[in-house]
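Hi everyone,

Forwarding the result from last night's run.
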Amino acid sequence: MSHLEEISEEGIRLMSSSGSVAVLLPSTAFILRLTPPPARKLIGNGVIVALGSDFNPNAYCFAMPMIMHFACVTMKLSMPEALTAATLNSAHSIGRGKTHGAIAKGRNADFVILSANSWEHIIYRIAAHGDVIRHVIKNGNVVEV
């Protein structure tokens, strides 16, 4: 279930009890000046939170580092929560949580190699990621970017 800017307490309870994944779209709320979805309340109630870009003409942002930044700033996710929401939980939301979204033996090798002092640089740098992302690996192969 995506967006969720207007989810009710009952909706949160039902999502929690059903095991549904909340796919939050921070750039949409930001660009449209909407109240961000209640990420902290969703997490506090045991709802799995994933992040997406909602890439479309009214939310023309497909940069996941920026999405994670917006999630931290506007929805109060911690950096580890934002990274998990953008990777493992997003994979889980489309039924690929056992094969994608984490670096582990037996999973697809899709990840980035950073040139930074810490992984958090991918989130707290705003819109300047060209020098941070050293390599993109897809299916175990380096992809030219």
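The chain has seven helices and five strands.

Cheers,
N.
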